[in-house]
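Quick log. Single chain, no ligands specified.
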Amino acid sequence: MEFSQVVANRHSVRDFTDQPVSQEELADIVRTAQQAPSWVNSQPWRVYAATGATLAGIKKRHAADVAAGRKGDSDLPVKPRTEWSPATQENMAALGEQIGAQLGEGVQEFQASQGRLFNAQAVLYVTIPVESTPWSFHDLGAFSAMLVLAAADKGLGAINAYALVMYPDEVREAMGIGADEIVAVGIALGHPADSALAAFAPSRVDVDEILTIKD
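-> predicted structure:
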């Protein structure tokens, strides 16, 4: 697939089929993402891939926690939306409007999908060292973007979601991740389901709103 097509087709998929993602596909995705830019070639990222019985166990515990009303306690701090910048608050509000307009009565499924971790058939947990500098977070973003694009190039759907890392203690236990690593990003992978939820893709702001060119 042409790169422009991969980028244009990529969106956060929130509903996957039961078709598994192979270990070979996961390795290829990570191998491709390793070409992401990295400050001083530090490559701070590590990837832990959960599939099969391991992922089933994570899903079961996650669903139970959500049902019990357990509050999330992610490694990275969570900031109330009211404390974000005005521009980002506008974008988040627009997302809410698009969800209601496009999904209608399916809005409840939008929320419920998080509790079942989108029926993902694989989850990539991306970590960086606890001692990371702000530059490593640049690398983290670049690497995460490359992961979802590499997945899209294979015809797979992906979504970066807070729900995947909101209970890092359980992820650490299941995946053998040490306390010296930040469980920073979770990316759910799978084959997109034939549903409105899977197809939902929010719009982006016009490029003129974010781009300044001075000649």
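The mean pLDDT is 96.
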